[in-house]
Amino acid sequence: MRRKDREINDIKTITSILDMCKTASIAMIDSDAPYVVPLSYGYEMKENILILYFHCAREGRKIDILKCNNRVCFNIFNEGEVLYDETPCNSGYYYSSIIGNGVVEFIENTVEKRYALSKMFAHQSGRHVEFTDTQADSVCVFKIIVKDYIGKQKKKLL
User: Fold this and answer.
1) Is residue 24 within 8 Å of residue 104, measured between CB atoms?
2) 4-149 classified as CATH 1.25.40.10
3) Do 100 and 146 touch, CB atoms closer than 8 A?
């Protein structure tokens, strides 16, 4: 990372950014071209390994790509307040972000799918909901196991 002054490695700060944000952009390679989709997510940390959970339709371009190449990159960010400066090149935004690489694993086990969906719903809504087997089996659920991630933040100075 070029701007070491903005780098975040602290798991507590990274978790607070993950809690604040609700959408992850997932980048994949479709043959020889990039393809990016924004998705709602849920997550959990297991010994500094980040596990991101997603759900989607059981078919479509994203699924086709991931079945051919399950390596992905993701970006989760919070765009904060605008930073205005007299010098336009110094203007921008205060922000927080997490970026990383991982491998997609499709979840086929119904109990694990229900767990992942509950994690997602809790993250998105702040409420715990138990999903039925029928609900879980009606969608595709996958996770990204992320060992390689880093945070970056431009904070407003008080």
Assistant:
1) no
2) no
3) yes
